[in-house]
Structures are given as C-alpha cells and as structure tokens.
Design goal:
heterodimer, A: mainly beta, 12 strands, B: 12 strands, 0% helix
C-alpha cells in the first residue's frame, strides 16, 4: 500500500522554538509538497520540490524553510515558531507524469503556544 | 492570478438526495488542469478527478459526475443518490501551464454532510 507518512500527528511547541516536520513517501515520486490547511482558506502551498536538493517557493513561504536531501524525504522547518503558524500541515507527493494527482499524508496538527 | 472559489461553505442533504458542489475558477492561462479532491473525516485527502482545459466533455463515474464549462469558468461536481460515506470536505483545485502544472492551487473547500 503506497504511502506518504508524516512523522507527527500532533505537536505542541512554544513561540520561538525551532520545529521540524518530516515527511517520507515510498512511491519514488520526484515531486513533494508542503501545504498548510486552515478553516475557510483551504490548502495553501508553502514549498514544493521537483528533485533532491531542489525547492521552489509556494504562495506562503515566509517563516518556513525546507530540506530535501533524499528523494523520499521532504522536511518543513519553522526556524522560530509563532502563534500564527498554528495549523494543520499536509505533505504530498506526485509523479511528474501524473499531473496534479497528489498523494497526501494524514497531516500534522501543530499548535504554537 | 489563479484562483478557485467554492461559494458553498457547508451543505447538508438527506441520504439519497442529489447534491451539486460548485466550483468557479480564474486563470489567464489557456492551458490548465482542474481537479477535485475529497477529504473524509479521517483527514487524508484523496484525488478524485483531473480535467484539462481542452476537454470539456462531462464525466461520470458511478454516482459521481463532473460538469466542466469554460464559458462560465466552472467545474461543478454532482453526487447522485448521496450516501453517508459521501460526508467529507471536497476541494476543487487548479494548476496552470504558465506557473507549473505541478503547482496545484486549492479552493477553500465545501463541507458536505449526508444525514441518514
């Protein structure tokens, strides 16, 4: 069963902490994505990556960075967490030949106090 | 700029009723893709369908059907004879050739509740 696995379902962090959200996919997909989901706003793209060590900014990259050292792993980093980054974070992957068919993980709900 | 609007925030229907979820999109590109995704209460989004801008044929898959009309920039989704298992949040989405087909932009979603 193909999967996108996010390391933590629930996290609680304090303002100013550094936060790592990890995502691993087992489908050998080139493309990986990080979205955040907020009520009434849908999913907003933070960063995406076409290949190892490559990254592209999405629509809301401020306050975030990413790392893709291996094809199967895409990490989202909050250098200094703030309360407005409290959200559900969704990781996804896709094959470049299957346009827009994203496979999502279960999500990581982050609360920043 | 590309944009996806789903004006219906929440819809409730009684089981076996038909329901249509509206989606209106904005794009300056002539080549683009439209999608629908389903997010059940368990949380994991699931891809339902993809259409490209050159294919306006309606599509039917079991109880699901999609109506794509470029003239009104709409890509509506109809569930026939709804079931409780259809209860979910449904997202319409868009990607363009100009920015990147892989950069999928989602609408705000419509929460559908099917009441037994």
């Amino acid at each position: 069963d193909v999967k996108v696995t996010q390391s933590s379902r629930y996290l609680v962090k304090r303002t100013g902490e550094k936060v790592f959200l990890e995502c691993v996919q087992d489908m050998d997909h080139e493309n990986m994505f990080w979205y955040r989901q907020d009520p009434g706003l849908g999913l907003r793209l933070i960063y995406f990556s076409y290949d190892v060590k490559m990254k592209e900014k999405g629509d809301i990259p401020e306050g975030y960075s990413v790392s893709r050292e291996k094809k199967e792993r895409f990490s989202l980093i909050l250098e200094s967490a703030s309360t407005n980054q409290t959200s559900m974070y969704l990781c996804a992957s896709s094959h470049p030949l299957s346009t827009g068919e994203l496979f999502f993980g279960e999500g990581s709900r982050l609360t920043v106090l | 700029a590309q944009k996806v609007t789903q004006a219906q925030t929440e819809i409730s229907v009684v089981e076996k009723e038909d329901v249509t979820l509206d989606c209106v999109y904005e794009t300056r590109d002539t080549t683009y893709y439209l999608f629908w995704y389903k997010q059940p209460p368990s949380g994991e989004l699931v891809f339902l369908i993809r259409r490209n801008s050159f294919d306006e044929q309606n599509e039917i898959s079991g109880r699901y059907s999609w109506n794509f009309q470029k003239s009104t920039s709409s890509f509506n989704f109809t569930i026939t004879a709804s079931q409780v298992v259809d209860s979910a949040v449904y997202f319409c989405a868009l990607s363009e050739a100009e920015t990147s087909y892989d950069k999928v932009i989602f609408g705000p979603g419509t929460s559908l509740s099917v009441i037994p």
